[in-house]
Structure formats: C-alpha cells, structure tokens
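User: My instructor asked us to take a sequence, write out its structure as tokens, and then describe one feature of it. I'm not sure where to start. Here is the sequence I was given:
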Amino acid sequence: MTFKRYTVLLLFAAALLEGCTSAPVKIIPEPLSVKTGRGYCTAGTEVEEILSPELSGRLGEEGYLLDVSRKAITAKAATEAGLFYARQTLSQITSEKGVRCVRIEDRPRFPYRGFHMDVSRHFFGKEEVEKVIDEASRYKFNQFHFHLTDNGGWRIQIDSYPLLTEMGSYRVMKDWDGWWKMGKRLFCSADTPGAYGGYFTKDDIREIVAYAADRHINVIPEIEFPAHSDPVFVGYPELCCDGKPYLSGEFCPANPAVYDFARTVLGEVMELFPSRIIHIGADEARKHSWKKCPACQALMKKEGMTSLDDLQCFMVSRLSEILKENGRTMAGWDEILKNEDLTPDTYVYSYRGEKGGIRAANRGLNAIMTPGEILYMDWYQASPEYEKKAMYGYSPIKKMYSFIPVPDTPEKAASNESLVEARKVGADSVEFILPECAANVAGIEGCAWTEYMPNREHLEYMMFPRLLAIAELAWSAPQNLSWERFRTSLPAFIDGLRARGFNVYDLHNAPEVTCDGSLIRMESENPLAAVRYTLDGSAPDAASPIYEKPFPVKGRVTVRAASFIGPEKVSHERNVVLEEGTETLDYYPLTYYPS
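Assistant: Let's start with the prediction itself. The structure tokens for your sequence are:
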C-alpha cells in the first residue's frame, strides 16, 4: 500500500454545490453507490490517499472509495487513475461550508469514455484544446479523439512532408459555407492576405499529450485515409488518382507511394502519440476517381476485386498492417466493417446510427457507440429558429441522455432506433447485440464537428453541458441513470462552467409535449421553469394550470403550452395536436431539421 496526504483547500466553491446537509449530493457522473451523512468536514483537513492494488478486483483499474467524515477524508484506489477520479468527485462535493460527509464506492461502466474534437474545419489552438481536456477530466473522460486532418485543413507538423502544413493548413476563407461552395476549395500559404487556419507543431502535440496524460486522458490521433484528404494533394498531387489537386479528396489505393506516405506519416504520428489506438478515418470515400483510374482498375483485375469497395478494403488492410507492425491497434469509422480481415482488437466507431456498433460487437470487435443522430454535438440543441446555424437535426441534452449504449435486447435497440430515425420503431424490425457479445461495447463518444463552430465561444456553447450527459452514460451504472435527477443537478454545474470561463448553453425553457398514445406529458429542459398549458385553444398565461403529472388524452386535442418562472413567461409557445392512440416524439421531431 502507498499512502499520500494533501490538504483540501476551498478552491472549489465555484461549483456551488453545497445545498443543505440533508439534501442528496450532486455529482456528475453519478457514482455507483453514495451514502450521505450529515454535516461537513472542515477546510484544511488533510486527505489521506491510499493506493491498494488489491482493490482492482472490486473497483477495477479506475474505481475508488471515498470516505468523508467530520474529522477525516480518505480515498482508496487500485491505481493512480482511481485516486485522480476520487479527487474529481471530491471537488464536486466541496463548498464554502467544507466537504460534504459521504461514503462513495465508484467505478466506471465502460473502459472507453471518449470526447472528440475536430480542429480541421475550424482550427483551435493548444490553449483551447487543453481547456476542453481539463474540463472533460472533471467528468472522468479518459479518451480524447483528436481529429487532426480532414477536408478543411491539415493540422499537424510532419517533417518528412513539410508541404502538408506549408500548403495545406491554411485556406483562403474562414467561413465554411462560403469556402465549401467555391468552384475550387482553395488552400494557400500562411502569408497570403486573409489566410485562415493553422497547425500544431510537434512541440504543441507533445504538450497536449502530456497535459492530457496528467489528467489520465489518452489522446487518440486521427489521420484520414483514404478520403477527406484534399489538403494533402495541394502539395503532393501525385498521391491522388488525378495527379492534380482540387479534383478529388481520395488517395489512390493502387499507388505504392501512398503506402510509403502512410508508413512515414503514421510513423511520425506514433512517435508523438503513445496511444495504442490510432484512428485512420476510412469513412465517406466517394470513389469516383478510382472508377476511371487505370492503376486502380488494373489492381482490381490483378486481385480479383469485384467492386470499388474492395479497393478501400485493400487500403484499410495495408494500413492495419502498418499499425500492427508498430504495436498499435487500428480504429476507424464503421465503414471498416466491410473488411472481413479485421482483428479482434480493432475499434469500430459506429457513427451511422447504432447498427455499425451492433454488428461490430456481434463480430467480436471493439464497438464505440457514437451515433451521429444522437451524440454529435454539431446538431441543434434547441429550436433552430432561436439558435445559430448548426449542422443537421435536433439533439437536445435529453435526447442524448436517452441513448442506450448497449442495445442487447430488441426493445433497447428499438428505443435507440426511434431516436435515430425520429419516428417510433418497433422491436420486431431491428438488429440488436447478442447478450453474450454485450461486453464488446468498449464505450461511447461524443463528437464535436466544427463546420459551424467558427470560434471558441461557439465551440463551448455546443459542447457544454451536453458533454456532461455523455459523461454520465459512459461512467454511471445503468440502474443509476435518472433524467430527472440529472436535469435538476445541471444548473449548479452550469454555474461552475461559467465560473471557469466557459460560454455555456442555457437549459432551454421551451416546453416539451409528448404523448404515448394514452397519456400526455410535459416538461421544460430547465428544472426551474414551470410548464403552463391550455386545452381549449386559448394562449397559456400566468393563470393557466401548471403541469404536474401525466393525464389522459381523449380523442383529438390541441395542447398550447409555455414555460413560466413565477408570473413571467420565459419561452415561446408550443402548439401541439395530439390524438388518442397516436404517439408523439416531441423532443426529436423531423420538423426541426433545417430546409
């Protein structure tokens, strides 16, 4: 056993979580077991940390025990990571009154708890990346998926191919739509007037990796193959089928120089990133240039390939071998499931709904659940008419929290599929994870794609507090998940985020109105707001009844609802027509998709 002591200082008061001594503690993500006591341990008390490897059987490699009495604070764990997570929990139960008396036993549900950040579409420098890493560590994330290359720009220094950053990391326009809709999506050098972009030096990367490691977060780099590689061909056009830039975004899978490039670039990347997992992308290859490329057609004939997909599988297999030779594990988006030769340690990121994750788990691969329709943070989190432009549909925090990471029954898979498709899906029409394969779901990930996040403020607005919902899905035991408990905890955590300098989305006041065919339910995202409603066609006002519990729908009825704080109306009105026997899924309606 190893013992350490440190003194609790009241530096955590900004969390504003003290409450009264009889109230439940507010911790995100919710621990496995919490027993609250009365009173507080006072400031200046030394924390005794005990490292006990024998606890791994009970707590795993990342769990911890935390015991706070009026006189002492003790944290125990099998590893340093467990002690770190105990400290993160301790910070949430510390206030101006002291440290809340409590006994906690905790361990994560999933070994992979990921957040993703795209720095290609819009570039965010080292300071902002580290700020997000630091905040994510508070909620016990342990994987940072660093999306470094894509059509928007190449963002990492590679000594062997200097033109990647000299010619591919700046573009002629910041505005994504304006640049994307140009006749040619032009890149430029850094000294071009109006140039927009940037990249990370190798020293920047080393600092980010070390900063994350100090917080027990592994950084997974993503270098895109075979598609999403427009900036590569500005400096190295010989690596694409056309031999010219701006004509396609895909490497030529039949060109031996491409694999020399991959081996060299990935070699330099692996020198910087100790991560066992290296992500190669492998998504959304259009393959148009492969169809007319003589070298590709000759390779297909030689290898007996029957489709262009076989060319992608060929490249993915070669990349997997390169990584394997270096003791690394390949990860890719769910298109890699086309490969039949994937090794069991491969990580498959299911972004096109849940189906890729289901199939990966049933094949014995590591499934990472990150369905775009649910866990992508570039989607609207409130009605689009009241928000800045976002990418596609509507993913408010409750929709994210409703996701079931391990759909190992038809009913669970159907619940997820209803979220994905924005309509009620029956359990008799879905695939699901075989119960004996459920452990192959390694975890989940929330993704911040930045086409419409052009600055720090908007990136943070789209990520927080939605990232907290993803944290709880990734860490907390399924039986401990409670939307109502989570929702009522959020305001204090939003205050803490603001105190630490984040631009945070405010919980929306607008009412949600749903019907399961027989009962009407209403709710505001903001727990401080009351929903008032009418059924007679009149506009709701401060004298209208407050929704308190579900009530029957009979026949066809028009519900008009708005949220109030005291007598003040604080939301726009929702006007919903409900019919007995018909279900409505109000918090993910197709009508919220932009035209």
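For the description part of your assignment, you could build on this observation: The chain is about 30% helix and 25% strand. Try explaining in your own words what that tells you about the chain.
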